[in-house]
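User: Predict the structure for this protein chain, please.
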Amino acid sequence: MPRPALPSFALLACVLLLLTGCGVDSEQAALCRKLIPAFDSGPITQVDAAETSGDEPSVRLTYQADGVVHWIDCRFGGRFFDERRHELVAVATDRTGTLTDTQFTMLRVWARLPYARIGLPPDSTAPRPAAGPRDWGPLLFFLQQVINAATVACVYGLLALGYTLVYGILGQINLAMGELTMIGAMVTAMGVAALGMAGLGSMPLAVLGVLATVMAFTAVQGWTMDKLVFQRLRRVHSHTPLIAAVGLSVAYQEGMRLLHGARDWWPAPILADRHELFSDGTFTVTALTSQGVILLMTAGLYALLWAIMQRTAFGRAHRACADDVEAAELVGVDVDRTVSTTFAVGGALAAAAGAVIALYYGGVNFYTGYLVGFKALAAAVVGGIGSVPGAMLGGALLGLVETFWSAYFAIAYKDIVAFGLLTLFLIYRPHGLLGKDRSRGD
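Assistant: Here is the predicted structure, written as structure tokens:
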């Protein structure tokens, strides 16, 4: 079979690069949207973003609050390729006009954003770090993106583990796994809000208790999903299980929307202390306490999963079913129980990914798991779906690609790049980096 010509892919890459010069910077729009609750406390719906004309880059968000249309205009210090594209230099709304310096300062305090992202100069009386070689700036910026990518990789890696466990034992993809992440994110946001009202939001043990409860709740959801739907379709050799998964996904989305509305939930940030790691006087590499906690949690969950798969009866049963379901049944393995437990473990991992989204990124709603679920599936395929190490490797790779594209090119096109990467792997290495080629059987 002839291989596609390389110039066609080079042409595609050129087209993608040309597209980066147009459209609204979605990261600027996301930063601007986080400021809306400072002016409207009610549910926010129908948010539309547009780039306004002018010498300085500006994003205007038009939204509805309590049935009334409002807008907020955020002006930034740079565009897609500029270093200052995250610096907010002015804010205006339809009711207040352009904010005064005092109002702008209060907005910075309310949003808990450092001056570098809100456009305020540092305290002139504070000692400034000694200026180092300016050649270190690009390297420090690169290092900052690696730190940022680690958190994204944790989200994709945890959810990709859920996909790969189910696929490894059934050979089928559960497209409703992203909605389990959405449930985990929504329930985490509600639990953290309840802790805040009880005055326990700053207690790490209380937050850990919420995380454990959410993972247990979503594990039950995964177990129930298999018992009520997929177990009845176990021996159906058609696309019926895939269609059923799509139906489950839509049902979860609409059910959550009807129960809790379409509003975004913004949990109060926890462990948000910022630590300066390196600086050359012009650029400072920083990391949040929460980023370190997320890395430790992901590593701990991965180590626990490895121990379960290698040292427990369930792990041995899972490996046996993944090798040959019929042979596993012949030697006495309870296949139905093993598969249901796999769905429960996958649901718990998906909930952990949702908790990271809620506590670190915020802004969760009934639609949170849709795109994240497809990206995690892409990560699982790139790493080798069916391979547990491959799921984490694929999540890390996708997180790096997405973050670095957002840092150096137009963030609005990061999804095109992510799914373009998936397409290339499906063409040239369909079994992924660490997956097994099952095309000829064993």
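Residues 113 and 216 are 33 Å apart (CA to CA).
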